[in-house]
Amino acid sequence: SAEFTYQNGELFAENVALSDIAGTFGSPTYVYSRRHIETAYRNYTDALAGMDHQVCYAVKANSNIGVLNVLARLGAGFDIVSAGELARVLAAGGDAKRVVFSGVGKTEDEMAEALKAGIGCFNVESSSELERLNRVAGSLKLLAPVSIRVNPDVDAQTHPYISTGLRDNKFGIDIKEAPQVYARARDLEHINVIGVDCHIGSQLTDVSPFLDALDRVLLLIDELAGLGISISHLDLGGGLGVKYRDETPPTPAAYIGAIRERLGERKVKLLFEPGRSLVANAGVLLTKVEYLKHNEHKNFAIIDAAMNDMLRPALYSAWMDLLPVRPREGGANAYDVVGPVCETGDFLAKDRELVIEEGDLLALASAGAYGFTMSSNYNSRGRAAEVMVDGDQVHLIRARESLADLMLGEQLLP
Ligand code: LLP
């Protein structure tokens, strides 16, 4: 991306050398660019100019409160899936009215928290959830703003683990059953129907599945109007892909342009829930080569980051670019780049041509989304530090976990 560039033979984040960051904060460390996040957000809002809209960043992609704060300052809304994410949004200065709450398993406590905070909308995913929300809102003497998440049954043509809009997925309500659910919602005393939403999958690289979903949702909106149920907002979820390798996803401008064209003269507020497309290419995972190890068939680079820090390669066989922080001259070897965790699946990159020596720094690219948030303490490894680069400044936004952090809350038997 434009914020991670080589300057005088070494890799920088904005105006800061990654080697300086490793020197100050150690490794592995997630490094994010504030400017990248801001530009990515504005690409959406610029494309939506002149339309009633709200961009609700999907917190699950990267939930560090420093990241959320950058977006909150721009007036972003947020898409949350738990009380934990709500707490983060509020701690980061986010506006509860601009929060939508997604997810198939909202607990009563989570509903109550969100109602008391005054969130903008519950994206309801089942009839049982609707009934529960009505009860919880009633007990608090509040009215719950609701959108029904419909499943439009379109094939997002992405990895099966991150495709969500097909009939067989657990997400949303079958679009054919939606009118009944809306009719019920209208009759419930503590429910206020305001919207319709869908989210068909992640890392989509083509607009056509989005447009197919939109067409189906627009038919539903017309059908609901016939029943006297008016829908004031349409939330198309997230899912716009990014370039990891050679993908050519549409830009937010092209994606939103196509949607605006399809909407024509309709008066509806548009919501989006982008996660990856705002933050993936805003971050790298900075790591150090601990050992080089060669056998007859293979060269291994053993690095200080592992699957517990970045799960995507192990879980989805995701390909992520790996960049030398200070490229060397010389003959390259093909390396499998692996972590210290005791699993064969613990790799971050396979079969990469690299000229490296022990002690060298590497940067795993496009690591700003679904990196830190999916990290764990497996093998009792403390989670990585996170820093935000802003011009020539570096701010620590999460300290590296200490050994004491690892045992926090644990107890010996009496
Ligand atoms: N809205 C809903 C309801 C979602 O389920 C998701 C992502 C988003 C928005 C944001 O989607 P995005 O714009 O980031 O594609 N861990 C996987 C991705 C899982 C996505 C889950 N839902 C990965 O690393 O590829």
Automatic annotation (TrEMBL):
Keyword field: Amino-acid biosynthesis, Decarboxylase, Lyase, Lysine biosynthesis, Pyridoxal phosphate
GO molecular function (one): diaminopimelate decarboxylase activity
Assembly behavior: Homodimer.
Binding sites annotated in the UniProt record for substrate: 276, 312, 316, 343, 370
Pfam families, A to Z: Orn_Arg_deC_N, Orn_DAP_Arg_deC
Entry keyword Lyase: yes
Segments passing through the bilayer: none
Domain Orn/DAP/Arg decarboxylase 2 C-terminal per the UniProt entry, residue ranges: 30-368
The family this protein is said to belong to: Belongs to the Orn/Lys/Arg decarboxylase class-II family. LysA subfamily.
InterPro entries reported in the protein's UniProt record: Ala_racemase/Decarboxylase_C, DAP_deCOOHase_LysA, De-COase2_C, De-COase2_CS, De-COase2_N, De-COase2_pyr-phos_BS, Orn/DAP/Arg_de-COase, PLP-binding_barrel
Annotated active site: 342
Protein name: Diaminopimelate decarboxylase
Domain Orn/DAP/Arg decarboxylase 2 N-terminal: start-end pairs: 35-280
Catalysis performed (reactions): meso-2,6-diaminopimelate + H(+) = L-lysine + CO2
PTM sites of type N6-(pyridoxal phosphate)lysine: 60
Amino-acid positions noted as binding pyridoxal 5'-phosphate in the UniProt annotation, renumbered to this chain: 239, 273-276, 370
Coiled-coil ranges per UniProt: none
GO biological process, one term: lysine biosynthetic process via diaminopimelate
Pathways per UniProt: Amino-acid biosynthesis; L-lysine biosynthesis via DAP pathway; L-lysine from DL-2,6-diaminopimelate: step 1/1
Cofactor requirements of the protein: pyridoxal 5'-phosphate
The EC number(s) this enzyme carries: 4.1.1.20
Species: Litorivivens lipolytica
Primary role: Specifically catalyzes the decarboxylation of meso-diaminopimelate (meso-DAP) to L-lysine.
